Amino acid sequence: MTPGLAFFYGGLVGRKNVLTIMTQSFVSMGITTIVWWAYGYSLCFSGGEGGIIGNLDKAFMAGVTLTTPSPYGTGNIPEYVFMAYQMMFAIITPALITGAFSNRVRFGAYLLFLVGWLTFVYFPFAHMVWGNGLLAKLGVLDFAGGIVVHNIAGMAALASVLYVGRRRVGDSMPHSIPLVALGTGLLWFGWYGFNAGSELKVDAVTGLAFLNTDIAASFAGPTWMLLAWVFEKKPKFLGLLTGAVAGLATITPCAGYVTPASAALIGTVAGGVCYLAVNVKNRLHWDDALDVWGVHGVGGALGVILLGVLASTAVNPAGADGLLRGNSGFFIRQTATVIVSSVYAFLFTFAMLWGINMITRVRTTEGEEEQGLDDSLHGESAYQSV
After folding, report:
1. Of 10, 65, 71, 313, which one is least surrounded by beta carbons within 10 A?
2. For the whole model, what pTM was predicted?
């Protein structure tokens, strides 16, 4: 999914900033792996039962051997496999945020942002939801990352946009819709592992999550394209691709807890609501360059809330019944969690960027933006000049 996101974002920006945003995706793979192995995995999945964060008992994978079973799932997979699988979520989440502040953030500041955001935003929510922490004890459900990945990343993206401000220099974007299509295809394929793999074993729910993932994306993409056709007078390929990603983000928390018919409804609603969110963003003049808030933030929040409405123990006894099956309490918990996680992710991200700016300048200069960040920050170019 890392190269998928890199191509998706790389195609959406202008020619002078392709490598910068792709670097931000790939460097997350390296830095996050180091942090995850050193202390991130332990803070998420060691100790802290019913709490906000775990402990450091498994820092540097202390005490974990080749034969140590995973403490999560059925125990039929090694803990090394579980650790590596969960690391994938940690890698992709901060990388999602980069699309919001493309062309405007210096690389050193981004590296500080990456480590700080993982430590103080991602790790607590991963623990609370998936590590037997506070939200899990309260009965909150998130099959594969509507809260833990998309909602908090989208709200962090919005905070980043409001902190760094609008781009000073216009950019001809997207510069390559075929690259966006390649990235979408890689992401869509990777999302099967993202969602279906979250069952942590192979059974009927694994197949359900796989199917629901595809159904939601397949309904959301054409819905977005149809809306663009109606309001923008053209059935745009970029709208089809963006809508599919919105559907993938929205079904993520629901994938193993709802029926395929519900997945079709979720995808349709996602295409419409996320399209509307992007248009609201444009009217408010928020310079969320690649629509991270509108697609991932709104999509993730929408999915968590719709799970509170449509969840069914008939398809997964380990889940819950939603509002339509008479369980208003579950719906309230899901909705409240969206509100709390959104507020925390937004406020902490904004404050952290302010703090990072005290250490090193966050925002690029007008000259750097004019030159393009590929050349001014990295001394490289994606394309030879002619």
Report:
1. 65
2. 0.95
- At residue 52, the pLDDT reads 97
Give the tokens for residue 333: 């918990």
DSSP assignment of 274-305, as one string?
Answer: HHHHHHHHHHHT---TT-HIIIIIHHHHHHHH
Q: Quick one: which of 133, 146, 145 has its CA closest to 45? A: 133
Tell which residue, 38, 153, 91, has the closest CA to residue 46. 38
- Nearest Cα neighbor of 12 from 224, 160, 180 is 180
Q: How far is CA 252 from CA 142, 194, 213, 301, 374, in A?
A: 8, 8, 7, 10, 33
Cα separations (Å) of 264 from 91, 186, 270? 29, 22, 10
Q: How many CB atoms lie within 10 A of CB 351?
A: 13
What whole-number distance in Å separates Cα of residue 361 and Cα of residue 141? 39
In a domain, 329, yes or no: yes
Give the per-residue pLDDT at 299.
Answer: 97
Domain region containing 372? 2-378
Q: Which of 223, 228, 225, 197 is nearest to 210 (CA)?
A: 197
In the chain, DSSP finds a helix count (H) and a strand count (E) of: 17, 0
Tokens at 69, concatenated: 């079973």
Query: Phi/psi of residue 353, each to 5°?
Result: -65, -40
Res 157: pLDDT: 96
Average per-residue pLDDT for the chain = 95
Q: Is residue 314 part of a domain?
A: yes
* CA distance linking residue 239 with residue 225, whole number of Å: 5
What is the domain count for the chain?
A: 1
User: How far apart are alpha carbons 91 and 260 in whole angstroms?
Assistant: 29
Rounded to whole angstroms, how far apart are CA atoms 319 and 310? 11
What's at 29, amino acid-wise?
M
The list of the chain residues with pLDDT below 70 reads 75, 385-386
CATH of the domain at 151: 1.10.3430.10
Residue 139 in any domain: the answer is yes
Cα 261 from chain centre: 24
Q: Is 323 contained in some domain?
A: yes
